[in-house]
């Protein structure tokens, strides 16, 4: 078996909790210089790339790369991404547990777990690195930006693989809670199995014919006023799996901007969060052998504030309104 070449350590340090971007040049290509490749590959203006070169901001394992450096297949380079202003997410992270190896938090809705796309500084990972002074902190797994609840991070690089393998090998019991319409004729509990595909660049996943690659157990905990509170137990971890399975049963999760149809809420509209909560993570610690069970302290707003969700929704007119509503998303509210 061909062994993978290890990735060299980054020659640039973190900057305010954010790692430099790492790129590996393709194994072959028509570009005469590194600059020619970057101008074609990166979604930024050529002038910004030239400015990075001029200030020595594009770095290889041997130091800064010159603008006219020849294209070198398979080599690595690093640089700091130009950061655009980000809309602050006005909700707080709560730390549920911390030891030498682990940091477990209760993530709010709308906060991404890790930097991706336009969400970089306003992510759980960057906030925690800054708050706790842990530059080596890394995610053990990921939770959708719109989903709230329990997320686990690894504090020590030497333990990263052990904790990430828990999720890859499905040795973590996950329990979610959701609020969705109540269908009296829907036979629950039930198990939903389907084949889910998610195409790059397409926001919605979809179910297609073929051998199932996803499975979820759906249970109705209680219902009132036309709404149900559901316990969701994913046995696999496909993208948007629970949201897609609930929608397929005819009970789409309240506040979902993608299923059953894609909507386009304003970026600063925090008033109607997806009513999905990662409630429980349970597993045997691969480092200490301890039995862990972490439980979110959050509650889903649609279940505690029926009137707000029964009335027609009007988006906030200003960030002040969104910030006011933030208090209702914090634990204990």
Question: How would you portray this structure in words?
Answer:
- The protein has 333 residues and is of the alpha+beta class.
- It has two domains: 21-79, no CATH class; 94-329, Pseudouridine synthase (2-Layer Sandwich), CATH 3.30.2350.10.
- It is built from eight helices and 15 strands.
- The protein has helices at residues 34-41, 46-54, 124-132, 160-168, 241-248, 301-304, 306-310, 319-326; strands at 21-24, 59-60, 63-64, 76-79, 94-98, 102-107, 138-139, 148-154, 173-181, 190-197, 206-208, 214-224, 227-234, 276-284, 291-295.
- The strands form three sheets. Strands 5, 6, 7, 8, 9, 10, 11, 12, 13, 14 and 15 form an eleven-stranded mixed sheet that branches. A two-stranded antiparallel ribbon has the order 1-4.
- The longest helix is centred in the N-terminal third of the chain and has 9 residues, at 46-54.
């Amino acid at each position: 078996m061909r062994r993978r070449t290890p990735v060299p350590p980054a020659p640039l340090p973190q900057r305010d909790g954010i790692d430099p971007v790492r790129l590996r040049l393709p194994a072959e290509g028509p570009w005469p210089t590194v600059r020619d490749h970057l101008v074609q590959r990166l979604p930024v203006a050529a002038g910004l790339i030239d400015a990075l070169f001029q200030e020595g901001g594009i770095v290889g394992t041997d130091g800064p790369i010159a603008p006219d450096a020849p294209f070198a297949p398979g080599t690595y380079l690093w640089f700091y991404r130009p950061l655009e202003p980000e809309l602050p997410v006005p909700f707080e992270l709560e730390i549920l547990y911390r030891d030498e190896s682990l940091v477990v938090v209760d993530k709010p809705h709308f906060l991404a777990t890790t930097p991706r796309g336009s969400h970089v500084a306003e992510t759980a990972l960057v906030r925690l690195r800054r708050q706790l002074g842990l530059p080596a902190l890394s995610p053990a797994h990921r939770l959708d930006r719109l989903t709230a609840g329990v997320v686990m991070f690894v504090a020590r690089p030497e333990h990263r693989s052990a904790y990430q393998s828990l999720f890859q090998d499905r040795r973590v019991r996950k329990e979610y809670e959701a609020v969705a319409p109540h269908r009296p004729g829907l036979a629950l509990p039930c198990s939903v199995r389907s084949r889910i595909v998610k195409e790059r660049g397409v926001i919605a996943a979809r179910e297609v014919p073929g051998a199932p690659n996803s499975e979820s157990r759906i249970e109705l905990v209680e219902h009132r006023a036309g709404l149900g509170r559901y316990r969701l137990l994913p046995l696999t971890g496909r993208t948007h799996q629970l949201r897609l399975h609930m929608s397929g049963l005819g009970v789409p999760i309240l506040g979902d901007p993608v299923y059953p149809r894609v909507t386009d809420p304003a970026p600063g509209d925090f008033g109607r969060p997806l009513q999905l909560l990662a409630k429980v993570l349970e597993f045997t610690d691969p480092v200490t052998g301890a039995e862990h069970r972490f439980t979110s302290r959050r509650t889903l707003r649609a279940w505690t504030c029926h009137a707000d969700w029964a009335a027609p929704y009007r988006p906030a007119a200003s960030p002040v309104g969104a910030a006011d509503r933030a208090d209702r998303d914090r634990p204990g509210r």
